Write the structure tokens for this entry.
Amino acid sequence: MQELLDWHFEWASPQFLIIKSMKPKYFVHETAVIDDGCEIEEGVKIWHFSHLMTGCKLGAGTSIGQNVMVGPNVVIGKNVKVQNNVSIYSGVTCEDDVFLGPSMVFTNVRNPRSAVNRKNEFQKTLVKKGASIGANATIVCDTVIGQFAFIGAGTVVTKDVPNFALVIGNPSKQIGWMSENGQRLIFNNEGFARCSESGEEYELKNNIVKKIKISIN
């Protein structure tokens, strides 16, 4: 195992330089492969057999599980949790606080053929802040997963998912709404709901959910 360090330099005198190691910047397991040109912020953890490719960016506090591939120029925000056996291909951006469940799948080409080179046709996928994608779900490229959306395990997403939406199935179908804490929101006849965990209140209006009040309970 290896820990990448920040270094602090002090001049003991005009002739002598003291080099002091500071706290580890991020952690990389000895079996992981980190290509040149990756940008990795403080507090990141990269576990067994994972591969980070040139140009990818990982925000502070992100965790990369076992056997994960992060492709060239992928952007991953702060405090993202990537579980085991996930491949994040070029064209994918994950904002802060995203959860990627075990063995979920991204794509970046809608019509792949082995004999046809489509490297210049990679399409983008955006996973917005706080969204959760369950185990073994598939996200077809050229889609946007909204803030705090919740994608159920095994779901196949083929179109954009609204903020706070709960979707399941193949193809995905919205069956409800979720709070920022990941609790089901049950709206009353006036279009208001309260998160059972945090006490925060939400409003549903014109099929758009917004948080309207932070509880002090």
